[in-house]
Specification:
Layout (H helix, E strand, L loop, with lengths): L3 E2 L14 E7 L3 E6 L2 E14 L5 E15 L2 E11 L13
Parallel strand pairs: 1-6
Antiparallel strand pairs: 2-4, 3-4, 4-5, 5-6
């Protein structure tokens, strides 16, 4: 069973017209607090950027703070916050993190 989104902004990256792609990798979440239909979780993530004729590079890394809720449609993210590890990010960022 996957987890959908319930009000949280969806992060997503993919192939762009510039022959550039980004891939989001996420570690297994750690459950910090559990209630019957609500979980507060944390996970580390990394986003890699690949250009067609270049080596892949690390684009952004950090952690997510999530609240997952059970809905009639299944598990959904009620909240997803991305906490960047670095204060510096590319000023030309075109992908939502």
């Amino acid at each position: 069973m996957g987890i959908g989104y319930a009000g949280a902004a969806r992060h997503g990256v993919g192939l762009q017209a510039t022959a550039e792609a980004a891939r989001w990798q996420s570690a297994a979440p750690v459950i910090r607090e559990a209630e019957p239909d609500r979980w507060r979780c944390e996970a580390n993530y990394a986003v890699f950027r690949t250009k067609l004729s270049e080596a892949s590079t690390v684009y952004n890394v950090g952690r997510t703070l999530d609240v997952v809720v059970r809905t009639p449609a299944g598990l959904k993210f009620a909240v997803r916050e991305c906490i960047y590890d670095s204060e510096m990010i590319p000023n030309s960022i075109i992908y939502p993190i």
